[in-house]
Amino acid sequence: MTDARNADELAAQVADAVRRAVADATTRAEEIVMEAEADAKQIRAHAQAEAAQIRERAEADARQQIDAAKRALDELGGSLAAAVEAATPTDPAMEEPEPEPEPEPTPEPEPEQPAESPGAPEAPVTPPAPEQPTVEQTSSAGNGDDAAERLVAMKLAVDGKDRAEIEAELTAKFGAADRSALLNDVLSRVPR
Question: Which residues of the chain have pLDDT under 50?
Answer without folding.
Answer: 130, 132-142
